[in-house]
Write a structure and sequence with these properties.
Elements: H1 3-14, H2 26-35, H3 41-54, H4 58-63, H5 66-73, H6 80-95, H7 104-107, H8 115-126, H9 135-144, H10 156-167, H11 173-186, H12 205-208, E1 225-235, E2 244-245, E3 256-257, E4 260-263, H13 269-279, E5 286-291, E6 297-300, E7 304-315, H14 325-328, H15 335-343
Parallel strand pairs: 1-7
Antiparallel strand pairs: 1-4, 2-3, 5-7, 6-7
Helix pairs in contact: 1-11, 2-3, 2-8, 8-11, 9-11
Pfam families: HHH, HhH-GPD, NUDIX_4
Keywords: 4Fe-4S, DNA damage, DNA repair, Glycosidase, Hydrolase, Iron, Iron-sulfur, Metal-binding
Domain HhH-GPD: 35-186
């Protein structure tokens, strides 16, 4: 039995019942693919269900306020995906009358849609014979065929795409793409796959050569930057606080946060309290400063590790345009700030 036939047979017996697999409608397929970039299915599923309930059509998503979209996305991370999703929905609704581009080449022109996402939509919606190549596909093919190409190399994508295209049944590319991704997600997992029960254990080159844990080859680990955030959680005499919007490009763009004192290392109470009095809230009298978490919360992003402390600051009088506790919960926050607010 050929690789693709055996793979598809395994898929039909083992596939998960996922809502975006029960349709050829480009809108939910596109939503799911954007959400599942850098995100596990179990984590992404509640967000997919919330989005499709709140925004059942691309027009509903297009007509939403960006803050509503970011609030619903809160906790899913990589927030540029949400902003691109919203802008692309507006483009499709307003410029394309709600109709998604009908080919891989045209899908690539959409903001936030790369080769992988375009291939997924084109094959699942239009049955176009375009292979998807993601981490799962790299892993399955590199192990099965014992390919030592560094998947971080620029040439790797082209090599693996060509191989996947060769293996793909051209009359049913959608099921092949679903099958190989599902096989990588459920069976041929990154660490300690159970090769004893694998349908390919009689033909997998990596297994025969005892190289399963060596493949795929991937070099160049991302350099991680350490950053130190001190969030100043103000409270005036009537319980109101202050927020600011992150408008600069970079992490958490257009999300809200408390006033921020960023430092070059973790700082003690004396240092932070001096800066609060000298550089923040000068027009008010500070009547109390409290360190909420003496040990920093470490929040890990793909390329940055944030060491976060929250400081409660009591002010005399009332803040101009202050935000009350009820309104506070309606703003879109990075998940680490949302969690802090929820536990207070």
């Amino acid at each position: 039995m050929s690789f693709s036939k055996r793979l598809i047979k395994w898929y039909l017996q083992n596939k998960r019942d996922l809502p975006w697999r029960n349709t050829t409608d480009s809108y939910p397929i596109w939503l799911s693919e954007i959400m599942l970039q850098q995100t596990r299915v179990a984590q992404g599923m509640p967000y997919f269900l919330s989005f499709t309930k709140t925004f059942p059509t691309v027009f509903d998503l297009a007509n939403a306020e960006e803050e509503q979209v970011l609030k619903l996305w809160q906790g899913l991370g990589y927030y540029s995906r949400a902003r691109n999703l919203h802008q692309t929905a507006q483009f499709i609704a307003n410029e394309l009358n709600g109709v998604f581009p009908g080919s891989y080449v045209d899908l690539l022109k959409l903001k936030g849609v790369g080769e992988y996402t375009a291939a997924a939509i084109a094959s699942f919606s239009y049955n176009e014979a375009v292979p998807v190549v993601d981490g799962n596909v790299f892993r399955v093919l590199s192990r099965y065929f014992d390919i030592e190409t560094d998947i971080a190399a620029a040439s790797a994508k082209k090599e693996f795409t060509a191989l996947a295209y060769e293996l793909m049944p051209k009359d049913n590319p959608a099921i092949f793409n679903q099958a190989i991704m599902e096989f990588g997600a459920l069976q041929c997992v990154p660490k300690s796959p159970n090769c004893l029960v694998c349908v390919f254990n009689d033909s997998c080159a990596a297994l025969q050569k005892k190289k399963v844990n060596e493949l795929p080859v991937k070099s160049k680990k991302l350099k991680v930057t350490m950053r130190y955030f001190n969030y100043l959680v103000v409270e005036d005499e009537v319980g109101n606080t202050v927020l600011q919007k992150r408008t600069a490009k970079g992490i958490w763009h257009n999300l809200y946060e408390f006033p921020l004192l960023e430092t070059d290392a973790e700082k003690n109470f004396d240092f932070v309290s001096m800066h609060i009095k000298d550089d923040f809230f000068k027009e008010y009298s500070v009547i109390g400063i409290e360190e909420c978490n003496p040990k920093s919360i470490i929040h890990k992003l793909s390329h940055q590790h944030l060491y976060i402390k929250f400081w409660k600051i009591k002010l005399k009088g009332t803040i101009l345009n202050g935000i009350n506790a009820q309104d506070l919960k309606t703003y879109p926050f990075p998940i680490v700030i949302h969690n802090f607010i929820e536990t207070e």
